[in-house]
Design brief:
single chain, 335 residues, mainly beta, Immunoglobulin-like, 2 domains, seven-stranded antiparallel β-sheet, five-stranded antiparallel β-sheet, 2 helices
């Protein structure tokens, strides 16, 4: 993850007294950590595993997950809780909740007594919302638990059928948590919760679900400019692996050649960035060239969901001196 635009101030202590926010159970961190100075990315300093509060109220225990989870599969595990005091709730449910946490640029003008602007402050603030809440009727949880007593059960519940997967985009986060929550009238709800990392399912991308399949899964792609950009390694690509690219562009202008892997996102404070790059001999595209691009291990998967998109682009670029660069490109799927 590129941290070049971040600062320790932006990520560590908040900015100008402002605070961000996250809904329960993703409210484990101080809201000041969700703000930063203008031009920074405070979420770069937040780990997905920091967000979930493990319990709240007069209840202790844990939810354990048996195995890694992928989109469209099952979540298997066990719930074990003990009440520190009597719990009398209107109901209780095990549910899977999804968080969308995004940075946004904020500004505020300050005025004097005659309404002249004295100064304007600008900052970045991240706020979260639950974009999905999936309650399960099984296993049934008791609405009443006497103080000192325990309740245990195993469970098998569905993961989100089409996603989105868990992802840390740098300027946005998609996270999932499984929680057992007791609905107590006129009081704060007791709960236990655990973060559930949900991986992208390669089969969904292969099937063309969403905007991340289709052209992004083709081995060979011919561009409108008469160029050809081929992927020589299996798709979808895997973070931490090498992405093989073969490019041929007979009509390419002269100049130094680079093959780059770009990330593009629609996150409000998002930016396009170069994830990996390889330099090749000038004028080499006519006969075809090959490159191996190292995909960073912390790359988030290609996905679209929860109002967010992350797309990866292979860009074949010719750097022309004193003129605009020329380029051909194609999408590529990473899972």
């Amino acid at each position: 993850m590129d941290l070049s635009l971040s600062s320790p101030i932006g990520g560590g202590v908040g900015w100008g007294g402002h605070t961000g926010s996250c809904p329960s159970p993703f409210d484990a961190i101080d809201g000041h950590r969700l703000t930063g100075a203008s031009g920074t990315h405070p979420l770069h300093f937040i780990g997905v595993d920091e967000l979930v509060r493990p319990s709240n109220g007069p209840i202790a225990g844990a939810i354990t997950i048996d195995a890694p989870v992928r989109v469209g599969e099952e979540v298997r595990g066990r719930l074990a809780v003990q009440a520190a005091a009597d719990i009398h709730a209107r109901g209780a449910v095990l549910r899977l909740v999804g968080l969308r946490l995004v940075e946004r640029r904020q500004s505020r003008s300050h005025h004097d007594a005659v309404n002249n602007t004295t100064h304007t402050e600008a900052w970045v603030q991240a706020d979260g919302e639950l974009f999905d809440t999936l309650p399960f009727s099984e296993p049934a949880l008791p609405a009443t638990i006497p103080g000192g007593s325990r309740f245990e059960t195993s469970f098998v519940v569905p993961a989100p059928r089409l996603g989105p997967p868990s992802a840390h985009l740098g300027e946005a986060i998609v996270a999932w948590a499984l929680e057992a929550r007791w609905d107590v009238a006129m009081a704060e709800d007791p709960f236990v919760a655990v973060g559930v990392p949900i991986a992208q399912h390669p089969d969904l991308i292969r099937a063309g679900v969403g905007d991340q399949g289709g052209l992004a899964m083709l081995d060979t792609y011919v561009t409108p400019d008469g160029g050809e950009v081929d992927i020589t390694t299996p798709l979808p690509a895997t973070p931490g692996s090498l992405l093989g690219v073969r490019a041929r562009w007979p009509g390419a202008p002269g100049g130094d050649v680079r093959i780059e892997l770009h990330r593009r996102t629609n996150a409000p404070n998002g930016e396009e960035g170069v994830v990996a790059s390889a330099s090749l001999p000038a004028g080499s595209l006519g006969g075809g060239v090959e490159a191996q691009l190292a995909i960073p291990p912390d790359c988030a998967p290609s996905f679209d969901g929860a109002g967010l998109e992350l797309t990866y682009i292979v860009r074949v670029l010719v750097d022309r001196r004193f003129r605009n660069d020329a380029a051909i490109e194609r999408t590529v799927a990473i899972a």
